[in-house]
Known about the structure:
166 residues; mainly beta; Jelly Rolls; seven-stranded antiparallel β-sheet; three-stranded antiparallel β-sheet; 2 helices; 12 strands; 36% strand
Amino acid sequence: xxxxxxxxxxxxxxxxxxxxxxWFVADTLTLKATAASTGKSYTVVECLTAPGxxxxxxxxxxxxxxxxVLDGTFEIHIGDRVYDVGPGGFAFGPRGTPHxxxxxxxxxxxxxLGFTPGGIEGFFRESGQPATNDGPAPSVDxxxxxxxxxxxxxxxxxxxxxxxxx
Length: 166
């Protein structure tokens, strides 16, 4: 452990609907747990995804990731495998493995994302923009693509085939 790591001695709770909200790749992310609140152990994000939405294919070189479907249905790609996951379903992708997900429901749906260790929320903050209302997230534009391209190397995120947006 180095002097920037923090040992947690207290737990915390976050009420429903609370947390920093970020528009990112046309999704609305709500940060539920961050590196700052978990002593850098993990990050948890609730993601509201439009039908057909989700991030482009990519690789995390520093974090493992998990997905827990809260409502709707999602197609989760991990390496060469594709999983159809519904409410209460879970998937895991180890660091270094290409992955992405897509909302296959006809309505906006929610999926919980977890990353270990924590810190990837910095990428979302630098690439996306603060959500300013409860409406749907704006479409991805050239400015967001440029922000992602700049931030991705800093956070060990790599684009893979089919991931032209990042």
